[in-house]
Amino acid sequence: MTEWWTHLTMLNQSFYVAAGFFSIIFLWQFIGAMLGMGHGDVDLHLDAGADAADVGGDSLEAHSAHEAADSAAAFKVLSLRAVLAFCTMFAWAGALYLNLGTRVAIALLYALAWGLAGWALVAVLVNWMRRLSESGTPRLSSCVGTTGTVYLHIPAGGCGEARVMVSGVISTVKARAADGGQMVAGTPVRVTAVLDHSTISVAPVTGEKTA
Description:
The chain is of the alpha+beta class. It is about 50% helix and about 15% strand. The protein has two domains: about 130 residues, no CATH class; about 60 residues, CATH 2.40.50.140.
């Protein structure tokens, strides 16, 4: 092994070192992405990102802002993994072609082609994995217009919790009274708006079947 290494050119050694370095980082990132797919359940109580702007009754704008923030974060992660894939494939291809005695200029062209192929493949694969994960994520906006009940007392001007149907599943979600008043536990309510990515606005209803 030592003899083989010492017979390599410095450029070839550099390619092998880079290949090993980027391979470790790429595998760590890729395994992390696959393990992340296992978290299909969403805890609607957690702050899942940057806080949405305080928009009062304009819930559509708040929801759109949160969606845009999620897309921007996903794009950054996607770009990072695609760049790592390019560097990994470029380094390995360069090292192997040089090891076979290919001229440096030709080896670099081949390495560039392999790097671009790796970038494209990972970009498509990671984007597909992200969309697959999102397809199983409950959308809070799906509960607007549905009925439920107050689960934890909602104080005047404060936040409590309500049990409502989110994407077909009964969930406990942070809730505020639409009129700013208080609501005791067990009060039948209707969801009037989504205030941010984890909080809804509810109004009391009477004589209706609730979730």
